[in-house]
Amino acid sequence: MATDYDAPRRNEADELGEDSLEELKARRAEAQSASVDVDETDFNESLELPGADLSNEELTVRVLPKQEDEFTCSRCFLVQHRSRLAATKGDQLYCRDCAA
Ligand SMILES: [Zn+2]
Q1: How far is the CA of 38 from the centre of ligand 1 (A)?
Q2: CA of 33 to the centre of ligand 1 (A)
Q3: pLDDT, position 87
Q4: How many angstroms is it from 47 CA to the middle of ligand 1?
Q5: Where is the composition biased (Basic and acidic residues) (predicted)?
Q6: How many other C-beta atoms lie within 10 A of the C-beta of residue 73?
Q7: What pLDDT is recorded for position 83?
Q8: What is the reported pLDDT for 21?
Q9: CA of 4 to the centre of ligand 1 (A)
Q10: Tell me, what's the pLDDT at 80?
Q11: How many angstroms does the Cα of residue 80 sit away from the middle of ligand 1?
Q12: Ligand 1 centre distance from Cα of residue 96 (Å)
């Protein structure tokens, strides 16, 4: 009698555990891919769109007077010295922090 009562309880618990584990894994994968999309793709796309909500960043770049030996990083929009230039992609310049 004790074994009869015990067996179904264990099976139930096992199934429940597996289900929630799979669910957790799926949710974690979704969350990860979602955050990667926002960080990389969304940011790069908005750089190309003049109508996007980038007014703050563009304003910062224009207000700062840029010297001849300085460049504006295309990613963090900071004006930095030429010696901090680490990479170029076409017209875009990247500082050491952003190229790393
Ligand atoms: Zn940068």
Answers
A1: 18
A2: 24
A3: 95
A4: 14
A5: 1-13
A6: 22
A7: 96
A8: 79
A9: 67
A10: 92
A11: 8
A12: 7
Let me know: does 79 contact 72? Beta carbons within 8 Å.
Answer: yes
Helix (H) or strand (E) run with residue 87 in it: strand 85-89
CA distance 82 to 68: 9
**Mean pLDDT, contiguous 10-residue spans, the chain (100 residues):** 63 63 80 60 57 60 71 94 94 92
12 strand-pairing partners: none
CA distance 17 to 29: 18
Query: What are 71's strand-pairing partners?
Result: 80
**What pLDDT shows up at residue 55?**
61
Are 70 and 55 spatial neighbours (Cβ–Cβ below 8 Å)? no
Nearest CA to 76 out of 92, 65, 52 is that of 92
Q: Which residue has the tokens 């910062």?
A: 60
Question: Model pTM?
Answer: 0.35
| CB count in 10 Å sphere of residue 95 | 22
| Euclidean distance between CA atoms 61 and 73, whole angstroms | 9
